[in-house]
């Protein structure tokens, strides 16, 4: 069942208190927006852990703050032990063999080019036990065909920089997740639509 995800740039630990006010299926906490992501304490999300996705995005894939990779790995292991959903890059998993990914989101982001189907298949090889495999792709020549191919395979797919309405279309094509913004100016990637607008359109389509 497709899920609406609000991507929240966490600029202060106080922002985490917004989660209960957001009417979506999931809220992604983008911890890489914190001045010091290492200040994050997992106990802060104990009461909301069933509604969130924790993401510490690497700057090479659109993240803001660079963090120590051992710290990131240890955080994800702690979250795994807590039963918290997180989003980890396939490339980061490939570099390490100590981060559980079964039942989690494994992602790949392309901001400057459209990869081949073969390249994407190789990136995700071995991560079939993820809850969702996710591709975010810049809207350059060939992006629609590639995203449609993987949407039909059960991936979550999204185009970055094209008309935000396309994300609705990819949901209809089978994308497992649709990412939206919390508010204007708080987008965590180009091409996000405000989540209230997405919710309205999806309900018109009978998808929510
Ligand atoms: O990977 C994704 C998808 C995304 O990049 C998007 O295009 O909406 C937004 C990110 O916050 C999230 O981690």
TrEMBL record:
Biological-process GO terms, alphabetical: 3,4-dihydroxybenzoate biosynthetic process; amino acid biosynthetic process; aromatic amino acid family biosynthetic process; chorismate biosynthetic process
Tagged with keyword DNA-binding: no
Keyword Amino-acid biosynthesis: yes
Pfam families referenced in this protein's UniProt entry, alphabetically: DHquinase_I
Metabolic or biological pathway, per its Swiss-Prot or TrEMBL entry: Metabolic intermediate biosynthesis; chorismate biosynthesis; chorismate from D-erythrose 4-phosphate and phosphoenolpyruvate: step 3/7
Reaction equation(s) it catalyzes: 3-dehydroquinate = 3-dehydroshikimate + H2O
Enzyme category, top tier: lyase
EC number(s) recorded for this UniProt protein: 4.2.1.10
Binding site for 3-dehydroquinate: 28-30, 57, 167, 188, 192
Record keywords, A-Z: Amino-acid biosynthesis, Aromatic amino acid biosynthesis, Lyase, Schiff base
Active site: 109 (proton donor/acceptor), 134 (schiff-base intermediate with substrate)
Free-text function comment from the UniProt entry: Involved in the third step of the chorismate pathway, which leads to the biosynthesis of aromatic amino acids. Catalyzes the cis-dehydration of 3-dehydroquinate (DHQ) and introduces the first double bond of the aromatic ring to yield 3-dehydroshikimate.
Subunit structure: Homodimer.
Matches recorded under PANTHER family: 3-DEHYDROQUINATE DEHYDRATASE (PTHR43699:SF1)
Record family assignment: Belongs to the type-I 3-dehydroquinase family.
Protein name in the entry: 3-dehydroquinate dehydratase
Organism: Nanobsidianus stetteri
Lineage: Archaea, Nanobdellota, Candidatus Nanoarchaeia, Nanoarchaeales, Nanopusillaceae
């Amino acid at each position: 069942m497709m899920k609406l995800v609000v991507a929240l740039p966490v600029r202060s630990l106080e922002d985490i208190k917004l989660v209960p006010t957001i009417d979506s299926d999931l809220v992604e906490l983008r911890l890489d927006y914190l001045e010091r992501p290492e200040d994050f304490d997992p106990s802060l999300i104990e009461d909301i852990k069933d509604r969130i996705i924790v993401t510490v995005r690497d700057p090479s894939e659109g993240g803001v703050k660079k963090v120590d990779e051992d710290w990131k790995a240890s955080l994800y292991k702690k979250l795994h032990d807590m039963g918290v959903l997180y989003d980890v890059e396939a490339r980061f998993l490939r570099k390490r063999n100590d981060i559980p990914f079964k039942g989690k989101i494994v992602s790949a982001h392309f901001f400057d080019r459209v990869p081949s189907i073969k390249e994407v298949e190789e990136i995700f090889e071995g991560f079939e036990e993820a809850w969702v495999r996710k591709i975010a792709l810049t809207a350059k020549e060939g992006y629609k065909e590639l995203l449609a191919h993987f949407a039909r395979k059960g991936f979550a797919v999204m185009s970055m920089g094209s008309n935000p309405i396309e994300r609705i279309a990819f949901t209809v094509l089978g994308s497992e997740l649709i990412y939206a913004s919390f508010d204007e100016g708080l987008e965590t990637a180009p091409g996000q639509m405000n989540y209230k607008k997405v919710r309205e359109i999806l309900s018109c389509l009978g998808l929510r």
